[in-house]
Amino acid sequence: MKSNTSKLLRSLALLLAAMIFLCNFASSQSKLTEKRIELSVGMNHSSKNMRLDQWLTFGKHRLKVGITCILKVKSRDVVFSYRNRAFPQRFGEYFGPNLGYNFDFLKTKSDFRLYGFVDMQLSRPSFLQRYYYPIDVYYLLPNGNTWLPTAYDVQVLPPQLILESNVGIGCTLPLTDRLQLNQMAGVGIFLTKRPFQFNNSWFDFEGILPFLRIGVTWRWGK
Three-class SS of residue 84? Predict the structure, then answer.
């Protein structure tokens, strides 16, 4: 388990280093051609959230830095997972930074763009979890199966540092000369450091997870 955790952390470190390299490469190869600010809503594995981002365009390359605000929603999922479980308790737990890189595969004269993206989000919210326990003995059903009645408790786990990284494709649709509709869809991974050790590891990992966003951008630069 420790070996797998070390490999995962090295992979994430390499991904972050690659994003920094792409950012530096984009800025060195092209001059800044456009600045945009974006307000969006979306979902990744841990939460539904809103973002306020600043986009910088260098030719076909676009760099993004912004802040994420987690929406406090009680999940109805019955599986033991971190899916939609982020449940901030204090003001600082609602917010976290995000970083992104886009490469335009297609750009038309009307400013329609089709692009690929890499996105990373860091946050430290509390989590809402359900813990199931038996309340009776096993019952033998007529079909031969067994059934164990259970109940559950809902508990709020202490804040946990989480990193979510996603890749995918997106498109921007021009609405006016300065206003655009932006849509993104992809998959990613989820990594968190637990407040306690389990199976000789302090980390939880979940992968191949959906990532969806929609927002509007406003061009305020060139």
Answer: coil
